Amino acid sequence: MYKNPDFPMIVLATRNKHKLAELSFLLGIPAKLLRSATDFEGAPDPEETGATFAENALIKARAISVFTGEWALADDSGLEVDALGGAPGVLSARYAGNHGNDAANNRLLLEKLAAMPGKPRTAHFSCVIALVAPDGSEYTARGECPGTILHEGRGSNGFGYDPLFLPDGYDKTFAEMSTEVKCNFSHRAAAATAMRQIMGTIFSPREPQGIFRGK
């Protein structure tokens, strides 16, 4: 296990402001220890060629750790719809072809489900967070959140498929919830809880109170 006598800088391998804010909140990393890939000129943005969320998260975290020489965190997440055999899965952000076109991705998803009347609209969001140390040590944590895909979007918060996703046990979509409420039970929250435990084991011995804020 990597050991460093000083507090580590942790670089989040993302340029998505929404994801950066959410992961920062969920992981409780002090601002003085947290950086973004955008803070490093020329930082790589590797192609996500993995077949799983874990593979893609590790691809991104490895690239940023090697480039910066620091600890790096990355996540990969997506929507898996039962009636579509788990699609869009790792292609969630580029389901309609262009990366990050949320409106087009949502339209395509609704079109595909509309062509399958009577099929259950059950789905779940999955997230894997990867942590890579400067010495190459790697750690991953996974979380899921089950729910249903609505026939039309509701709400303007969040990003991606949030307006269409109604989590089990709730009457509001992810996009109708505040970040604070969503972060109590989302797939990313579950993965972050597991990663906080991993990070606590790695870093807390160097500081009796730990380096992480409580949620």
Walk me through the structure:
This protein is of the alpha/beta class. The protein has a single domain (10-206), classed as Maf protein. Helices cover 28% and strands 20% of the residues. It is built from 5 helices and 6 strands, in the order βαβαβαβββαα. It has a 6-stranded mixed sheet. Helix 1 crosses helix 5 (187-203). It is globular. The two termini are 26 Å apart.
Pick out its properties.
disordered C terminus; alpha/beta; 215 residues; single chain; globular; Maf protein
- What portion of the residues fall into strands of 2 or more residues? 15-25%
Helix content: 25-40%
What count of structural domains?
1
**CATH architecture descriptor:** Alpha-Beta Complex
- Going by helix content, strand content and strand pairing, the class is alpha/beta
What is the average of the pLDDT values?
Answer: 88
- The tally of beta strands, per DSSP, is 6
